[in-house]
Amino acid sequence: xxxxxxxxxxRDDMEDTRSRERTHLPLTSQNTDGITDxxxxxxxxxxxxxxxxxxxxxxxxxxxCLVKLEATNLKLKETERVQDADNRLATNRxxxxxxxxxxTAGLDDRCxxxxxxxxxxxxxxxxGRMYIxxxxxxxxxxxVPLGNYDMASLGLxxxxxxxxxxxxxxxxxxxxxxxxxxINNCGLKSSGSSGKDTKEDREFLEVSEFTVALRTIRxxxxxxxxxNMSLVALENYLLxxxxxxxxxxxxxxxxxxx
Length: 258
Known about the structure:
Largest sheet: none
Number of domains: 2
Distance between the termini: 53 Å
Oligomer: single chain
Number of strands: 0
Radius of gyration: 33 Å
Number of helices: 9
């Protein structure tokens, strides 16, 4: 709609210019006082879109008319670029579906030998479908838990307990707690005499501690189970609601724990 309006205004300005020239200028002066052929040639060299217009149109058009035409041309080009990107993505998706890749079997020890299947392009399907497909392959308890993931390079080294690594590797775990990813619990020792696991006794005292722990568990989940997006969804919800700080503040009395 805006493009059509700009074109219409440009045409109206051109007609107004022609009308005024026919009314106020003698016939012999219309060619000598207007834009020369050399001027038109230079304008077409500097502004490529003018090549689509006749010399007569350019000669009688006002400068603001040409500016509107240039703005319209730029918007048309931007629209074409967006459409080209959309068409390219649609074509790529159709090609990916019609030409599935065949992956050769090989060894993978998760540490030193990495199979090429680890580096396949990301799946373009619903996260629920991806989760269900992965659970069918992983089984009920998942793969053997490891704890040597490179969290340090992500700025989160030393913020997970060994229990956290064990529980996060089990997709059916009912014991996984965000406290296992609290840096304040990583240095605590277990109590061997009482038989009670006291490695995760410390609660969160500040929202900032909980935020870091949530980021840690989400990052760890991405390394262990990249197909499990549940913690990404949870973190995005909490961030959008400011970690529900207002709700916890209104419902708390005395010291606050999170």
